[in-house]
Design goal:
This protein has about 100 residues and is an all-alpha fold. It has one domain. The protein contains five helices and no strands. The chain has helices at about 10-25, 35-40, 45-50, 55-75, 80-90.
Length: about 100
């Protein structure tokens, strides 16, 4: 496969977009409650993976969660979502309500 002339640029972009559209899958947000998590086996593999993590791996995951929550609080326009992230940070004892 060689280089294409710049005049073929738009055709290449159009082809790439058409290919991406064929593979795009819709995302559905499915609300879960505590009962769903505890009583179904859906989360057992995730629980097992977390239980088998080393202290370093758990620390790395915790830092990623804290960073993500802080970024959402900073960047999200929805006050309910920001409040949810603050609640997660409180549960992780990163911050306290004064």
């Amino acid at each position: 496969m060689g280089y294409e002339p710049v005049s073929n640029y738009q055709a290449a972009v159009d082809w790439a977009v058409s290919m991406a559209d064929q593979f795009a899958k819709p995302i559905y947000v499915v609300p879960l409650n505590h009962r769903d998590i505890l009583l179904t086996g859906r989360f057992d593999p995730m629980r097992a993976a977390i239980q088998n993590m080393t202290d370093q791996e758990r620390g790395k995951m915790r830092r990623a969660v804290v960073t993500t929550c802080c970024e959402v609080m900073r960047d999200c326009d929805d006050p309910e979502i920001r409040a949810d992230m603050f609640h997660v940070l409180r549960q992780l004892k990163v911050t306290y309500e004064s």
